[in-house]
Automatic annotation (TrEMBL):
Record carries keyword Signal: yes
Protein name, per record: Secretion protein HlyD
InterPro entries in alphabetical order: CusF_Ec, CusF_sf
Record keywords, A-Z: Signal
Organism domain of life: Bacteria
Membrane-crossing residue ranges in chain numbering: none
Leader sequence residues: 1-21
Taxonomic lineage from the root: Bacteria, Pseudomonadati, Pseudomonadota, Gammaproteobacteria, Aeromonadales
Keyword rRNA-binding: no
Length: 115
């Protein structure tokens, strides 16, 4: 195979891959209205009361209502916090709204706000 044939083959292959990537990433023709609902479901807030704060280890104890996005009943438990800065300004006994996720089996508070 000569250099011109090789170059042409590579260029055509690259163009084909680029066209496939653009088609894959296009949302034209898709009903994106359901995405808004999914995003809202992903950030469902739960009510609770802070029962302990361990800022040094990035943990917070919360007595909480049922956590719908995790299908978890009401209880008191300790969560990791996604960012220790989330705990700033909070004290034991504060009523809060929070969002928790369970990445890799590690319950984590990703949003925390006073009620």
């Amino acid at each position: 195979m000569n250099i011109k044939t090789l170059t042409l083959t590579l260029l055509l292959g690259f163009a084909s891959l680029q066209a496939r990537a653009e088609m894959t990433m296009s949302h034209q023709g898709h009903d994106m209205s359901q995405m808004a609902g999914m995003e809202m479901a992903d950030t469902t807030m739960t009510r609770g009361v802070i029962s302990r704060i361990d800022a040094a280890n990035g943990k917070v104890g919360i007595k909480h209502e049922a956590i719908s996005n995790l299908k978890m009943p009401p209880m008191t438990m300790t969560f990791r916090v996604a960012d220790p800065a989330l705990l700033e300004g909070f004290e034991v006994g504060d009523a809060v709204n929070f969002h928790a996720t369970n990445p890799a089996g590690k319950l984590t508070v990703t949003m925390l706000q006073k009620q």
